[in-house]
Amino acid sequence: MKTRTTKKILILTLLLSTMLLVACGGGSSSGGAAVAQNNSLAIAKTLDGNADEDASGTVSLNDTLTYSVTVTNDGTTTLNNVVVSDALLTPNSNTCATLAPLATCVLTGTHVVAQAEVDAATVDNTGSVT
């Protein structure tokens, strides 16, 4: 009875060892294993405030709007020279030299509402990241 139990444990150990070798990239002796890399960014833009120069309580002509464009590294690798930009804002870009996983890079800028935006009843702008 003990011999049979020992054989089952040995077979199970060999199976687990084989699965481990396959999961780590085979039986090579280099000791290296492939690590999955995922370069990914998420971007969000928010209207943080309105200076409301005319005290109307609404967004209107010549009001100064403050926006934030936040980029989050939601990948698994550190990224270099991440540029957050928005052509409508002043300043219109911010460069982060490095962006570790889960770190953020933020562009905060202002925009003065123009007559064309009042006529269109919207301020249409888009932030981007490269």
Note the topology.
Blueprint: H1 2-23, E1 41-50, E2 64-73, E3 79-85, E4 93-99, E5 104-112, H2 115-120, E6 128-129
Antiparallel strand pairs: 1-2, 2-5, 3-4, 3-6
Question: Summarize this, please?
Answer:
With 130 residues, the protein is of the alpha+beta class. The protein contains two helices and six strands; from the N terminus they run αβββββαβ. The radius of gyration is 28 Å and the shape is elongated.
The structural class is alpha+beta
N-to-C CA distance: 67 Å
Strand content: 25-35%
Shape: elongated
Share of helix, binned: 10-25%
In which order are the strands of the major sheet placed?
1-2-5
Count of extended strands: 6
Q: Which series of helices and strands comes N to C? A: HEEEEEHE
Q: Main beta sheet: strand number and arrangement?
A: 3 strands, antiparallel
C-alpha-based Rg, rounded: 28 Å
Number of helices: 2
Let me know the average pLDDT. 82
Oligomer: single chain
Q: Unreliable stretches, pLDDT < 50, 5 or more residues?
A: 1-27
How does this model look, in words?
The structure is a single chain. The protein has 130 residues and is an alpha+beta fold. Helix content is 22%, strand content 35%. It has 2 helices and 6 strands, in the order αβββββαβ. The strands form 2 sheets. It has a 3-stranded antiparallel β-sheet, with no helix packed on it. Strand 3 and strand 4 form a beta hairpin. The longest helix is centred in the N-terminal third of the chain and has 22 residues, at 2-23.
